[in-house]
Amino acid sequence: MELLTNLYLLLVLSFAMCQGQRSSCDRCDPRLTCNCSHAGYTLVPTVTDRALTLDLSFNDIAVVTGGDLTGHEKLLILILHRNRLSEIHPSAFDSLWSLERLDLSDNQLTAINRRWFSKLGALQELNLLLNPYSCLGTRPVLQRLVRLRRLMFGGPALEELRRGDLSGVSQLEELTVQANNLRRYESGALADVWPLGRVTLSLHGPFLTNIGLASDVIGDVSYPETPIFLKDLHLNQSVQPFREMASRRVRKITFCNLSVSDKGIVDFLEAVDGEPITSLFMDGVTLIGEGRWEKASLTDHKNIDEFFLRNVVVLNVFQFSSLLQLGFLLQYPRKVSIINSQVFVMPCATTYLLLNLQYLDLSDNLLTDLTLTETLCNGDGTLKDLRVLNVSGNALKSLSTVSRLVTNLSKLTHLDVSRNGFISMPGGCSWPSTLRYLNISWAKLTTISPCLPETLEVLDLSNNDLKAFILILPSLRELHLSGNKLLSLPPGWMFPNLQTLTIQSNTLNMFTRSDLQAYRRLQDLWAGQNKFVCSCDFVYFLQSAIKGGEDVHLSDGEDAYVCDSPLYLQGEPAGRVRLSVVVCRRVLFVSVSCVVALIIGVLVCVLLWRLHAFWYLRMMWAWLKAKRSSRRRQPREELLSYDAFVSYSERDASWVENFLVPELEEPRENDGDSLNPRPLTLCLHKRDFLPGHWIVDNIMSAMERSRRTVFILSENFVQSEWCRYELDFSHFQLFDGETGSDAAILILLEPLSKDDIPKRFCKLRKLMSSTTYLEWPREEERSGEFWRKVRNALRDEEEEEEEG
């Protein structure tokens, strides 16, 4: 048989490999939880070998091979729920030494192989539900699972349970057995597990066809401290299993998906008469009959402390008689819950029967203000021991009516009226002085009033339409305001003892350190999921709080605080935003920028002043202006008044006045030339500049009215700034279309090379490289030749003009 199984597995594996290679799954979060569910995988995908949780549920995986999970020694949780698993290689899980939870439920496994679990010594939870196997195997399959604490097995095909099936399992916190079609049960099959926590049994078929078998199963798992959950029952047959259960002194029984008649309930009450059952839970009940309870009126159930009924449907409800006949049962419990059972009224007479009631839950029913008045006996304080009242999810409209009905409940501490239709709050209300917890969430309140009692320690007003909360509640420790329209935190000084504040999903823009400091004892703040404006102060404060730098703890985590504006930060977690200095310290940045700009400006101005840039700009502007005006007036030839403008240093004035002027301006005897030389007209600044005019205008005018410019070069010239300006202006003229390229004449009074001239005299250095210059001779006999060359240089242009 084993050989055939291995051959079949080989064929399945070969077929799967022909279908394609294994895919990879990269849907792993930072906690190394890989959620690969609902992805359509047909083979086990490859994932990181560091994964701690691997969820492969809701795929189409048909086989797990021996190598699919190799290398996953760190894996703690493996979920293969709801696939098409029909074959698992015997060594498929051998490498999963650390596995603590394995879910193979809702697949197509027809047999359970003990080899699967032989290396899973750390396994604590195993789910084998809803597979088509008929038994747990021919040998004990769970022998090696010594640490197993939660076991779920069974399904529609499970027919047999034998002694030894759970061999190796010594104790369980939870056992779930789905055996609706169980046919054979070997007494004691489930009895060896001790201690045993919660037990859930689905025994629909045995209760209908083999009541003895059902009694054996229930008897083997019935212990005083073990809660028993019975599912999918029709409680209209023999109640022998419950007598077995009662004899084992089971205290907590829960029925899920129960169909029962009034006669069945009477039989059950008689079966457990006098037994120490303390809690009776029924969830999903269909009740038929007429409500005849008389036969059970003499039974003793004084140990029952809690009744829990949820999702109850009473067929032919109008044929049911009053519950007054259940007085023998209702006088004992301290806790009664009737939830989502279409209860529209509980008559006051029935309320009087609840003598010991401390907890009443009538949530998700059809109570109105009128029927609640009947239920609470018009507020006469009948339920004198009631401490907790839950009437949430009904059709109540008037908060003042509720307060009036409970004001005489002298021990009431908790009141839940959430999910009702309150649209306003009266100006004043009367409440019991003992009230500490009040829940009015999920209503339609737009404002609050002093109707709220000052004794409250916990107040829940979540999911209303409140835009402000201003009310002094000195005893309040918890305030829940999520899901409203609040623009800011409530003033902290009104709640001197507040420790927890939840204000998520409102319209908060921001809050500051001073806002929270107003709450003297606040410890936990839940304020995420708002539309935060991520200003610098808010971001800095929030990041400080996230890092633990504040007394208040942001309990909902940094990812809940997301920027809504400015637009470029929208959707970014405020805790990870990095704002620039330009944004956060704008005044400081502008101030520093202005100071730096001012310093740079001053430095630039000083540099420009040192380089005489302003003078050059002004000179250029004046020269351009003069050029335009001169062109509008008359041609340059008509403006010429001098043969040369002489540029020289004041320290060289004696040479100019004693040598240059007499030689060039005074008439001379014929020196051998055929023509007597004509005296030249020179422009000297000491003599010819117009007084009262800007010196630059005088320089420009003199150069404009002179054919040539003569530069008297010497050390004094190089040291004179004004000479430099005249030199620069002359350089402008060199590029003027109306002047020649030899408009400048250089005369060296003393030896001066280009390298001796400072680099700042760039124009002079350039002229000396491109223009022939005349040197003043030290020998007197050579002076005649020097003056002749000067005259010839000054007259060349004039002669050319005359020839033209």
UniProtKB/TrEMBL annotation:
SMART domains the record matches: LRR_TYP, TIR
Taxonomy, superkingdom: Eukaryota
Primary residence: membrane
Mode of membrane association: Single-pass type I membrane protein
The UniProt record lists the keyword DNA-binding: no
Cystine pairings recorded for this chain: 28-34, 348-377, 429-451
GO cellular component, one term: plasma membrane
Start and end residues of each TIR domain: 640-794
Keywords: Disulfide bond, Glycoprotein, Immunity, Inflammatory response, Innate immunity, Leucine-rich repeat, Membrane, Receptor, Repeat, Signal, Transmembrane, Transmembrane helix
Entry's localization field: Membrane
Gene Ontology MF annotations: transmembrane signaling receptor activity; triacyl lipopeptide binding
PANTHER family according to UniProt: TOLL-LIKE RECEPTOR, TOLL-LIKE RECEPTOR 2
Name of the protein: Toll-like receptor 2
Organism the protein comes from: Trematomus bernacchii (Emerald rockcod)
Organism taxonomic ancestry: Eukaryota, Metazoa, Chordata, Craniata, Vertebrata
Name of the gene this protein is made from: TLR2
